[in-house]
Design goal:
Number of domains: 1
Largest sheet: none
Strand content: under 5%
Helix content: 55-70%
Amino acid sequence: MTISAQVIDTIVEWIDDNLHQPLRIDDIARHAGY
């Protein structure tokens, strides 16, 4: 698996684990390292 695919998988897993709370694009970007 490429690094890009691993990053995407990690972010998607984090989103799935946090669907119970409001998620903003800023939160997702921060988690992704942007």
